[in-house]
Design brief:
Blueprint lengths: L15 H22 L6 H13 L22 H17 L14 H4 L12
């Protein structure tokens, strides 16, 4: 999706808070670096300015803020809950009108569920 992320995360060792913190830190730094270092990015100054303005509003930041501070995690303990959540996530791009079929959205695990190999690397379950 263009403005948010849905994911299913399974862990038995790391607290979810730590996983989300590290994921946000890594992806924000990677994306900000890609924007800053891409000479073809015509919106570079504007994007970095936006992230800096957001960062200035939060004392937890040193410069930029890419992700929102909150998450909306839900613990799923039953197989049917996980299946429902997976279907919801896979159908999001279809509902948004980006694609006609779930497996056509390249940034979704739905590609793998359809028997192809997608861009998202899935962990063995």
């Amino acid at each position: 999706m263009s403005n948010h992320v849905h994911m299913l995360v399974s862990t038995s060792q790391e607290p979810l808070e730590d996983i989300f913190r590290d994921l946000k830190h890594f992806t924000a730094n990677s994306i900000l670096k890609a924007i800053a270092e891409n000479p073809q990015e015509s919106r570079k100054a504007w994007l970095l300015w936006l992230f800096e303005q957001a960062g200035n509003k939060n004392s937890n930041n040193t410069k930029y803020q890419f992700w929102q501070q909150h998450n909306q995690p839900e613990e799923l303990t039953k197989a049917f809950e996980i299946e429902q959540a997976t279907d919801y996530i896979h159908n999001n791009p279809v509902k948004a009108g980006f694609v006609d079929k779930t497996e056509h959205y390249p940034y979704s695990s739905a590609v793998d569920y359809s028997g192809q190999i997608g861009l998202v690397k899935l962990a063995a379950m």
